[in-house]
Amino acid sequence: MCGLNGIISAVIETEKCESIVRAMNKRLAHRGPDHDGIWKDDKICLGHRRLSIIDLSPESNQPFISNDKRYVIIYNGELYNYKDLKLELQRTAQGSAEQPYFFKTGSDTEVILAAYIRWGNSCLTHFNGMFAFAIYDTTTKKTFIARDRIGVKPLYYYYGDDAFMFSSEVRPIIHSGIRSFELNKDVLAEYFMYQTVLAPNTLVKGIKMLMPGHYLEFENGKATITQYYSTNKISNASDHLSYKQICEKVNELITHSVQLRMVADVPFGAFLSGGIDSSAVVGLMSKVSSEQVQTFNVSFDESEFSESKFARIIAKKFNTKHHEIKLTPGDFLKQLPEALDAIDHPSGDGPNTYIVSKATKNAGIKMALSGIGGDELFAGYDVFKRMTDLQKKAWINAIPRFARTGVGHLIKKRKKSVSGNKIAELLSEPKISFSSAYPLNRSVYTLKELQQLIKHPEPFTQIKKVVDQTPQKKHHLLSAVSICEINTYLENVLLRDADQMSMAVALEVREPLLDYKLIEFALSVNDEHKFPHTPKKLFIDSLGDLLPKEIVQRPKMGFTLPWQSWLKNDLRSFCEKNISELSEYSFCHKNEIQNYWARFLNDDRIVTWSRVWHLVVLNYWIKENKLN
């Protein structure tokens, strides 16, 4: 796990390119404290910051050069099947023109490079891992850049007349000095509505994110982007299987995924919240490991927020070396400025992830496994049940729109809440369908609410595109919801937060529930086997007796903090300052933004802390990066 930077320019001198990349590397020091590397050629410079996880020797430092000196690679991530691929690349098929590759290191970096030399662009179909990498061919002068299937590892780029630049983070490009960057006002409505900006767009005009499952080729001043993988597909892989066989297959895939992700040459462990997903990962780690697993749980005294008692149950059952890191609200608040400064691109609730990552890293761990992905794959969120209920109420469309709108107004008036506003807006739609309901389900505000806060509220373009491209297959409604969750919330909030906040403290996080083979199979399972009578029924049944009843039957919590109280007390002056500054921007309705904050302070049920906090974060990030 590392950080990478690069610049290619026909107009900027090589020495200047090197100077720019050195400065970019410095900004990524937190991602890779173990080595700082630079490689340059005519009008190109590549930079790398290394966090050593596999093969800790200096020979594996990057930029890494092939045996014949033709290719140079910079790479961020982990290739989980690198050992099998290495054996294959050391062999040749009888009678073929392929040559064996002679490895000089034990790193997965060299395996990726050797695979590209052997298979070219199609090397990506051989990889199982999380990655973003760039390979430069000194002969053809072509640069090949790729990102993993699910989008665990980020890759941002700028493509202008002066240069082509790319980085693991947005900020090194913003502050590269190559040009001044502006706030991307075209996607502000999307950020307000969904607490994030969906790839390929970012909040910075001119900076894009390479989409998951895509690669980019830059040659002769031209960039070409190609998709090599998509999660937008529902196969028939499980159609011929009984429920018991489906459970056995899910168990097999998850167990193998966990096993693959336990390869490391440094101390590692697992985040253990005490929920089903993290408990399952820890249980399977203990099952396949010959050594005692280390687990990490952050706890605090407020019982309504702490899950530590459940984590202790799992730690005891699997005899883990358990670290319970108790923090007070004061500890969290002291670390909040660090967490805010670690935000590379605003999204979701990043500070929570920062606190857990920092506590784990301080305990001497360099890599940790996480339970991210279980809710998206196995119908763990409320949105799955809502969409199922909506499907059963298709008859509502037979009611004239004016009548539905009238009913919506009554509901909104009597049920003064976020859900009441959303129901009213959905009933006023020309047609109530998956396409209209899913974006509204996932939104922070309704469109009418957004219109009161900002000018030009047009947030639906990108998420509508995701929803419209999602396959609608009979008996697979829940898989369609999973695909939307993966391509929106998971990729653009959870994974973005997990990467930027864990790498801010140089901690690598691996997500075994996001193995692409597991995802493909889970999406193939029809609704009758997944229907959420209880959340994640298929997942739980697949685990057999791995988890105790206290974990399986407990209410869902998630890692949360007492934000509602903090925003009104400890963080009040900080929030007021940022809300006031945000309201002054030309894209905001000043009085409405300030009134919204006043409503929050006056305990308006509609103005929850999450509807306010991401606005505070937005302004803080804009100011910090001088985009105003």
Description:
- The chain is α+β, with helices and mostly antiparallel strands.
- It has four domains: 2-227, Glutamine Phosphoribosylpyrophosphate, subunit 1, domain 1 (4-Layer Sandwich), CATH 3.60.20.10; 243-379 and 479-552, 3-Layer(aba) Sandwich (Rossmann fold); 387-474, no CATH class; 563-624, no CATH class.
- The protein is built from 26 helices and 17 strands.
- A six-stranded antiparallel β-sheet has the order 2-3-1-9-8-10.
- The radius of gyration is 25 Å and the shape is globular.
- The model has no long low-confidence stretch (mean pLDDT 92).
Brief synopsis:
This protein is of the alpha+beta class and 628 residues long. It has 26 helices and 17 strands.
Q: Please give the CATH architecture of the largest domain.
A: 4-Layer Sandwich
Coarse shape = globular
Give the assembly state of these chains. Answer: single chain
> How much helix, percentage-wise, in residues?
40-55%
CATH superfamily of the largest domain: Aminohydrolase, N-terminal nucleophile (Ntn) domain
In terms of structural class, how would the helical and strand content be classed?
Answer: alpha+beta
Question: On the 0-100 scale, what is the average pLDDT?
Answer: 92
Please give the CATH class of the largest domain: Alpha Beta
Q: Find the CATH topology of the largest domain.
A: Glutamine Phosphoribosylpyrophosphate, subunit 1, domain 1
The count of β-strands is 17
Side-by-side strand order of the widest sheet: 2-3-1-9-8-10
Q: Cα distance, first to last residue? A: 32 Å
List low-pLDDT spans.
Answer: none
Give the number of domains: 4
Largest sheet: 6 strands, antiparallel
- How much beta, percentage-wise? 5-15%
Number of helices: 26
Instruction: Tell me the radius of gyration.
Output: 25 Å
